Amino acid sequence: MATAVTVKGQVTLPKAVREAAGIRPGDYVEARATALGTVVIEKTRTDALGRIEHSLEELRRRGIFASMSAEEILRLTREEE
């Protein structure tokens, strides 16, 4: 399914693609280019744990090792002094 890119760089995901991926209005997606020049669009989690997991994945993809899990980081942010 082809779709045009607007002058603002926006694209519309076809309905069949949104339905297959479970993407609904208000959901967040991540778009990234691969080394081969293709583009991958993935639905992402929007809760705190999902955002932390996404950040850890990005660090690992860049070769930066993160020794803590997303759950450990989230616990640290919720601890009271």
Features:
Pemi-like Protein 1, Chain: D, alpha+beta, 2 domains, 3 helices, SpoVT-AbrB_dom, two-stranded antiparallel ribbon, extended, 81 residues, 37% helix
Overview of the molecule:
The protein has helices at 15-21, 48-61, 70-78, and strands at 28-33, 39-44. It has 81 residues and is an alpha+beta fold. The protein folds into 2 domains: 1-44, Pemi-like Protein 1, Chain: D; 45-81, no CATH class. A two-stranded antiparallel ribbon has the order 1-2. α2 packs across α3 (70-78). The relative contact order is 0.10.
Radius of gyration from CA coordinates: 16 Å
List the helices and strands in order: HEEHH
Overall 3D shape: extended
Mean pLDDT across every amino acid position: 83
Kindly name the structural category: alpha+beta
Q: Indicate the CATH topology of the largest domain.
A: Pemi-like Protein 1, Chain: D
Query: Using DSSP, what is the number of strands?
Result: 2
Distance between the termini: 53 Å
Number of helices: 3
In the CATH hierarchy, the architecture of the largest domain is Ribbon
β-strand amount: 5-15%
Strand order of the largest sheet: 1-2
Which regions contain 5 or more consecutive residues with pLDDT less than 50?
none
The count of domains is 2
State the CATH class of the largest domain.
Mainly Beta
Keywords: DNA-binding
Domain SpoVT-AbrB: 1-46
Organism: Labrys wisconsinensis
Protein name: AbrB family looped-hinge helix DNA binding protein
